[in-house]
């Protein structure tokens, strides 16, 4: 009888401990979420304020200059905003489509077919994915320069 009471007490203590641990984790994660999203909130608020108001400090409430700021942005001949957005859409859309297609074909090949170096191929792919993109940037720029493809979309897309 005493053994059952001790076991029940241990289970209740473990359950309470788990609840406290989860609550603490959720509080920390909620704080980190707010911290990460705050910069986007600040960006949106500052887009609605005039330059002088931005320089005077942060405000929690949006200003009344959003349309004025947008008009100035799109009418500025030194910054071709719409052209830049179009270029980004072309490059990002093409990259996303090609990456999705070739990744799906690779995953299908690794899953559906049995071949000698299947595990080695999978490990090689995982290794390549772990290397940061910035490590290969200098070599990429050198290669693109030698191929004469500077100022074209193709190196970015492919």
Written description of the protein model:
The protein contains 7 helices and no strands. It is an all-alpha fold. The protein is flat and about 65 Å long. The mean pLDDT is 87.
Number of helices: 7
The profile of the biggest β sheet is:
none
Note the beta-strand portion.
Answer: under 5%
Query: How many DSSP E strands?
Result: 0
User: Which sequence of SSEs, written as H and E, runs from N to C?
Assistant: HHHHHHH
- What structural class results from the helix and strand content? mainly alpha
Furnish the topology, listing elements before pairings.
Elements lengths: L1 H45 L4 H6 L9 H10 L5 H32 L5 H13 L6 H11 L6 H4 L1
At a glance:
The chain is mostly helical. The protein has helices spanning about 1-45, 50-55, 65-75, 80-110, 120-130, 135-145, 155.
Descriptive labels:
mainly alpha; 158 residues; 0% strand
């Amino acid at each position: 009888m005493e053994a059952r009471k001790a076991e029940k007490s241990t289970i209740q203590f473990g359950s309470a401990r788990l609840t406290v641990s989860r609550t603490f984790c959720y509080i920390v994660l909620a704080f980190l979420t707010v911290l990460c999203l705050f910069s986007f909130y600040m960006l949106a608020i500052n887009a609605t304020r005039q330059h002088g108001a931005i320089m005077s400090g942060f405000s929690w409430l949006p200003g009344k200059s959003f349309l004025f700021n947008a008009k100035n942005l799109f009418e500025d001949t030194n910054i071709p905003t719409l052209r830049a957005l179009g270029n980004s859409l072309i490059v990002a859309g093409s990259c996303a489509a090609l990456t999705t297609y070739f990744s799906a074909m690779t995953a299908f090949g690794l899953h559906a077919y049995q071949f000698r170096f299947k595990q080695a191929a999978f490990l090689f792919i995982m290794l390549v994915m772990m290397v940061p993109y910035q490590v290969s940037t200098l070599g990429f720029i050198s290669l693109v320069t030698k191929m004469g493809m500077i100022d074209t979309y193709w190196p970015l897309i492919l």
